[in-house]
Structures are given as structure tokens and as C-alpha cells.
Amino acid sequence: MSGSATTIEVGGPAPYAVTVGSGAAERVVAAAQGALRVAIIHASQPAQARDRIHAQLTAAGHEVLAVAVPDGEAGKHLDVARRCWDVLGEHGFTRSDVIVGFGGGALTDLAGFVAATWLRGVGLINLPTTLLGMVDAAVGGKTAINVAAGKNLVGAFHPPIAVIADLGLLDTLPEAEYRSGLAEVVKCGFIADPVILALLAADPTGRASQAELVVRAVRVKAEVVSEDLTDTGRREMLNYGHTLGHAIESVSGYSVRHGEAIAIGMVFAAQLARHGGLLDRASTDRHRELISAMGLPVSYPAPLADLLARMRVDKKARGAALRFVVLEGIGRPRILEGPGEELIEAAYNDLLPT
After folding, report:
1. Structural contact between residues 272 and 326, judged by C-beta atoms closer than 8 angstroms
2. Which domain-ending residue is among 172, 200, 219?
3. CATH of the domain at 210
4. How far is Cα 184 from Cα 238, in angstroms, rounded to an integer?
5. Which residues contact 215 (CB under 8 A, 6 or more apart)?
6. For the chain, which has fewer Cβ within 10 Å, the N-terminal or C-terminal residue?
């Protein structure tokens, strides 16, 4: 393999490793060893890298199926999953075969869901091609598709057998997509690793310390997921900014990128904690200042009532009570359960442009 790599172990009931480094995509052949068939579920880009992986797997003796799906959230649909299942059935895909999810975070969500549901579970190798996929979606074992009621409401926990994050694939990633991925990186800084915040404050583009940022963000997620795979405890803290963020994505028809929505959600969560007497003004302002410097949005113009309706069907809600991940300080996340609508409205009003 060309280039150096860092390996991060993810524990739990089905341990696996995340490999981060330039040229890491070449490791897919080793990860797929023992499988007769390999199905590459992929979006449109990056085609050249996908073709190279296809050729490497074929040369290693695998029967390779390439299953093209729509880009982005449009691929996270039951009809798309059904088409993938049909292809697997037509080619006699068995439990000893492997699915490779090659694409961004939405793609690895879909590929993971297909892997989790075909024959009640087959092997999955995630090869994320975006920053968002590398630090978030491809790691942790959550898989899902979207339905009319909201984002990621139908899914399963299905850890991959390997995650391979090739940093070289980020060189041609559109700048807006790269910034979107940085939102999940800075989230890890706010909830667990202040060094991430310092690195991004020094270089809000994240390019100067890209490898360290990816490794640090993956380590935060790996530590949490190793302890809590199925979201029954500590893992909820990874949803910082996601309650409002998912609502914004849904209300916008997914025209707002995931990272952009989560960025707004984190600024809102900080304001919610401040109004609730949990977070100091300096830490609250640090959210807006740093996220703005990174080129991410900090407000959204939709009426709060529209967003509240979506938040009430969020996975983190319990009965009629909304639940938000908030901070009591940098690196000190907690759950705020059932905040009053006046508190929510005050926090949301702070987001509106003046």
C-alpha cells in the first residue's frame, strides 16, 4: 500500500478497524478476503477511484458487481434499497459475500442498510469518499434510509467489518462538501476534544491539519461507539446539533447539506444551554464565531413551528418530550429533556439574522 496510515480500533460486540491515510483504498482487497462475490454499491463519483478498486478486486479473483445508485439523500430511499436487493438476488449473493459502500455519508448509510437486511446481515466494508463519511456516517454501525416522516427513521445497527478512509479522495471533493464534513469534526471538538477546536481556530479550512483532524474525530466516535453501539447511553452525545439539524434537512427537502444543518443545530444547542443556565456566554459565542469562520451557516429562516413538528418525530424524542444534547462546558455534554417552548423559542430567536 502506498502512503502511511493510522489504524483506529472500534470495540463492542463486533469489533473492526478504521484505517485513515493516503492510499488506504488499496486495503479493500485484504478486507474482502474470503468472499466470492463483492457488490460495490456506489454513487456517481469519484469514478476513477471506484474503477481502480473494481479492477483490484477482480484481479484478486472476486466476482464484482457494481450497483449504481442516486447521489446524496435521493439514494436513501426504499425503492433504491429494493433495487439493490434485486441485484443481490439475481447474482446469488450469500452470507459469505461482501458489500462495499463507496461514496459519501448518505451512500454508506444506504449500503449499510442493504447489508444489514439482505439475508439478515452480510459483511460490509465502508469506503467513504467524503470528509463527512470518514468522520461520521461510515463509522459506528448505524444504517438507515429516509421516509416521509423524517430522516433516518428506518434502519438497523450493523457494524462494518472494516472502514477505509483514503484521505487522497478528499483532494477533489467540492469545497462546499468539504466544509459540510468539517461540521462533524468541530462537533467532536465541542463534545470531547478541545484540541480539534484549537486546530480549527488556527486554520478554519481544516486543510493544514487534515489528517490529524480526521484521526481525532474518528477516535472520539470510536471511543463512544465501543462503549455504546445501540444508542442507549453515551452514544447520544454524538447527536449534538442533530435534533434541530435533522429537522432543517427534512423541512428543506434536503437542499441544506447535512453538515450545514448540524452547524446551525450546534449554534442553537449552545443558545439553548445558555438560556437554560448551563453554558457560559463565552462558550456560546465560541460556537457562532468558530462555525462562521469555517464558512458554515449559523441560522435558518424557517418558522420554528415547522421545525418543531419535525423534531417531535426525531429518534431522540421520548413520548411527547423533546430531548436535546447540550453542553455544560466544552467537552461536557449532557441531555436536556423536555425544555419548555419558551426556552426553545428564545434560543431559536437568537439564531435569526438581525
Report:
1. yes
2. 172
3. 1.20.1090.10
4. 9
5. 6, 8, 20
6. C
